[in-house]
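Service request form, structural biology core

Requester: graduate student, group of Dr. S.
Request type: structure prediction, single chain
Budget code: on file
Notes: please return the result as structure tokens.

Sequence provided:
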Amino acid sequence: MTQLDVVYRYGAPPAERTMLALAKVRDVYGVRRMEFNEAEKTVRVEYDASRLSGPVIHQLLRRAGLDIVETVPPTLLPPDTAPVEPVKASVA
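Core staff response, request fulfilled:
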């Protein structure tokens, strides 16, 4: 399993209907966690990259009705929230 995080900035705050649809996105096999930061208008999705890809996560959020404005590059994230690079297995 390869765990990755992606952060999206959204425009309009999600309505109740969108939040209900996003709850179903959490049930998708491979989506591990979703965190909303209302102050920064961002959503962080932690997912299993061996099951899903970044574009698939983006599409799931858009189809749920989230107004995605941009993908936040990891360099713009605060240092304590930047995703950790996965450790690659070494061949001995």
